[in-house]
Write a structure and sequence with these properties.
The chain contains 7 helices and no strands. It has about 220 residues and is mainly α. Helix 2 crosses helix 4.
Length: about 220
């Protein structure tokens, strides 16, 4: 059961990565918050190359790392447009600093709380990511670089990962306690809020586009 849930999580997160890449290219912006990208890259690099696992999860980590490198390339290409108050070199310096901090944060959490393993770091960064996606939507005031499908696949992927981990953790007593349940529940709540918020903003944008089109059409009919 846990393996099936884990497979579903991997497929949902793979869809999330592909949707972010496709949306970023189409709309010429980055689609993953920079701090979230830094934590993701740090986690995937550590558990692919520094302290690699084994089996199918290692293969999945390699694939996800490749996707995150593509998202990083899009962030380098389009990120400066979102930080117009910074020169390009300033944006790149900021990005590099956040990448280093993301790597160190994941590594230190893993070493201190999880014997160098991946679980606490993964769910800690999932909570951070969920909050950051919601913050990016609010900061941009639009769905630019985002979509309901990204929100849904991300939420489903994380929920399935939580369910699989809950089963596995019964055999890992050092992970028992309130922290992991809190991380899982809080992340699920933020993911649900993100889906609702993206849907609401998308509906508002769609309605505004219809009203604008109707107004423009009416103007043309009047002038004719």
């Amino acid at each position: 059961m846990a393996d099936a849930l884990s497979l579903g999580s991997g497929l949902a997160w793979t869809a999330t990565y592909l949707l972010i890449i496709w949306t970023s290219r189409r709309e010429k912006t980055y689609g993953m918050p920079i701090a979230a990208l830094a934590a993701n890259l740090g986690w995937e690099f550590i558990f692919s190359f520094v302290r690699p696992g084994d089996g199918m999860q290692l293969v999945v980590n390699y694939v996800w790392f490749g996707f995150d490198v593509a998202i990083l390339a899009l962030t380098v290409a389009y990120g400066p447009r979102e930080f117009r108050f910074l020169p390009r070199w300033g944006f790149l310096a900021m990005l590099a600093s956040v990448l280093v901090m993301g790597y160190l944060g994941v590594d230190l959490v893993s070493r201190q709380f999880d014997h160098g393993l991946a679980t606490f770091a993964a769910f800690g960064q999932n909570l951070m990511m969920s909050g950051l996606f919601l913050s990016m939507l609010i900061a941009r005031g639009s769905t630019r670089g985002q979509s309901v499908w990204i929100a849904l696949t991300k939420g489903v992927g994380t929920a399935l990962a939580s369910a699989a981990s809950w089963i596995w953790l019964q055999d890992e007593p050092w992970r028992h306690g309130p922290l992991l349940p809190y991380l899982m529940i809080a992340t699920a709540a933020l993911d649900l809020a993100y889906v609702v918020a993206v849907h609401a903003v998308a509906r508002h944008e769609s309605g505004r586009a219809v009203r604008t089109g109707a107004f423009s059409g009416g103007g043309r009919r009047t002038s004719a």
